[in-house]
């Protein structure tokens, strides 16, 4: 009998009684679970979080909220080996990819826990020093950030069921808002187990953290003016969330992190086999194959000076063909399957679209040679590297993200302005990477592309030893991007709390304001 995935709402587990949707092992195509939440009262679930979890969190100091985050991280770490194995079965992840997700989750929670400890016994933030408003020093203005009294609704993507959940909940809980998180169905097996651990160990107070497995139903029809919604996924779904009648009517805050055509640019100064060249080749290959290319931060467009195209193509092909694809639990396999049949179908269609303007120079449609896996059973797609001749004319490359192990090499003249013009055709990205040891080239390019990207990653010989690549989403740096990337912003240390807090201006007698702000901490 298949495992039935449950939701945890209103302080209890809930399992629907309607027709269930099956969840599959992407390596074998065998059903491993089923989910159905028919009959779930979403209005009650949200209200329980607001009325039960909200007051508890707001009564806590930042230090106490930080201790709660650290306890969540510790609970998950205690079951690390079990969770890593479950990540492989439910998500098709190699052990390395599973660690990337789970350790990213616990690392983010721990980072925010430490921020809470530094903020100490305060319960809200004081935003900057007093502002004198008249000739009298007594009449001043202050700004405060107070926890909103609603619920944070988090709708997560399939690719990072642990890390995606943790990066949103860390900022929300430290900011003082309870969370209702909706897991992506295809990888909800791991998400449910993560929450099950917290429930079994009684880590989280009632109402502070709830889980929805299955359909989101009419949840967004029950939002209030104090609620917020954070979504990670496709731009199309993000648009539907933003345009929901209740969301618009209640002016609900919405943060969207959507698909984006992230880029890498190789500088004209970089010589073959140099430290910076090798870093570029290594990180481009990693981004293509890590988690089978199913990362929102993964490079999709690789911009290369015309005179270096042949050398880059040769070195990338060599690196890519050394990556073994197959059963993610087998020794030596570095890339597993895609997460679902739907992902495979979308990626197949995407590669076919790219082929209308680009030539495949490495790989092909289909699984290719697999290690310890049946091509006909799992959801495999071998790495595919394409190349175009005219970068500006290849419009589809700048508008169609293929969310898998697929990249396209595009030539540019070697001038920073030309690279920037081509890169910005993507109309907004989460991250762009520049590989160059020439400071003027890097600076010119950065100034031109910064308005179009949420993060810029600079690779050079100076940082080759330390670089984590663009795929690492760090809790101390913002994550998000403009335009087609969703126009959202998460994490960034204490910046991530802003979404969950209301900034309010205070003006009046300075001693009165000082009294009002006694439970705050200035940032």
What would you say about this model in short?
The chain is an alpha/beta fold. It contains 14 helices and 24 strands. The protein has two domains: 3-259 and 486-522, Aldehyde Dehydrogenase, Chain A, domain 1 (3-Layer(aba) Sandwich); 262-475, 3-Layer(aba) Sandwich (Aldehyde Dehydrogenase, Chain A, domain 2).
Compute the number of strand runs: 24
Tally of structural domains: 2
Strand-pairing-aware structural class: alpha/beta
Mean pLDDT: 95
Rg computed from alpha carbons, rounded to a whole number of angstroms: 24 Å
The biggest sheet amounts to: 7 strands, mixed
Give the % helix: 25-40%
Strand content: 15-25%
CATH level-3 fold name of the largest domain: Aldehyde Dehydrogenase, Chain A, domain 1
Which residue ranges are poorly predicted, with pLDDT under 50 across at least 5 consecutive positions? none
Q: Judging by the overall fold, what is the CATH architecture of the largest domain?
A: 3-Layer(aba) Sandwich
Instruction: Give the number of helices.
Output: 14
């Amino acid at each position: 009998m298949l495992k039935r995935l449950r939701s945890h709402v209103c302080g209890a587990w809930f399992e629907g009684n309607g027709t269930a949707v099956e969840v599959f092992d992407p390596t074998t195509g065998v059903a491993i679970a089923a989910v159905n939440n028919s009959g779930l009262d979403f209005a009650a679930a949200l209200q329980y979080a607001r009325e039960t979890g909200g007051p508890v969190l707001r009564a806590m100091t930042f230090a106490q909220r930080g201790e709660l985050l650290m306890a969540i991280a510790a609970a998950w770490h205690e079951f690390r080996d079990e969770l890593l194995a479950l990540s492989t079965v439910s998500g098709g992840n190699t052990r390395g990819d599973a660690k990337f997700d789970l350790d990213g989750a616990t690392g983010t929670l721990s980072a925010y826990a430490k921020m809470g400890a530094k903020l100490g016994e305060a319960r809200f933030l004081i935003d900057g020093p007093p502002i004198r408003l008249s000739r009298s020093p007594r009449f001043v203005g202050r700004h405060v950030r107070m926890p909103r009294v609603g619920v944070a609704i988090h709708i997560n993507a399939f690719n990072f069921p642990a890390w995606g959940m943790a990066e949103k909940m860390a900022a929300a809980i430290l900011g003082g808002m309870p969370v209702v998180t909706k897991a992506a169905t295809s990888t909800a097996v791991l998400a449910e187990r993560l929450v099950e651990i917290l429930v079994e160990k009684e880590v989280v107070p009632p109402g502070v953290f709830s889980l929805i497995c299955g359909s989101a139903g009419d949840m967004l029809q029950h939002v209030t003016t104090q609620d917020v919604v954070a979504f990670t996924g496709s731009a199309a779904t993000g648009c539907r969330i933003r345009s929901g009648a209740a969301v618009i009517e209640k002016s609900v805050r919405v943060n969207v992190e959507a698909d984006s055509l992230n880029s890498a640019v190789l500088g004209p100064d970089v010589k073959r086999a140099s430290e910076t060249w090798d870093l570029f080749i290594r990180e481009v290959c990693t981004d293509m194959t890590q988690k089978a290319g199913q990362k929102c931060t993964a490079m999709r467009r690789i911009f290369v000076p015309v005179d270096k195209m042949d050398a880059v193509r040769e070195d990338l092909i060599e690196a890519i063909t050394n990556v073994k694809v197959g059963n993610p639990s087998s020794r030596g396999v570095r890339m597993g399957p895609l997460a679902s049949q739907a992902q495979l179908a979308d990626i197949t269609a995407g590669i076919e679209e790219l082929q209308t303007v680009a030539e495949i120079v490495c790989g092909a449609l289909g699984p290719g040679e697999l290690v310890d896996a049946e091509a006909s059973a799992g959801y495999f797609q071998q790495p595919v590297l394409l190349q175009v001749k005219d970068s500006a004319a290849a419009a589809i490359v700048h508008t169609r993200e293929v969310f898998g192990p697929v990249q396209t090499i595009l030539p540019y003249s070697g001038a920073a302005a030309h690279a920037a013009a081509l890169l910005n055709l993507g109309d907004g990205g989460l991250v762009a990477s520049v590989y160059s040891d020439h400071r003027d080239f890097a600076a010119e390019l950065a100034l031109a592309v910064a308005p179009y990207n949420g993060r810029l990653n600079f690779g050079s010989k100076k940082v080759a030893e330390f670089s984590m690549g663009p795929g690492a989403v760090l809790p101390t740096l913002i994550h998000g991007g403009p335009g087609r990337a969703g126009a959202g912003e998460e994490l960034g240390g204490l910046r991530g709390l802003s979404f969950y807090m209301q900034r309010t201006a205070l003006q009046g007698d300075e001693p009165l304001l000082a009294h009002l702000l006694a439970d705050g901490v200035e940032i």
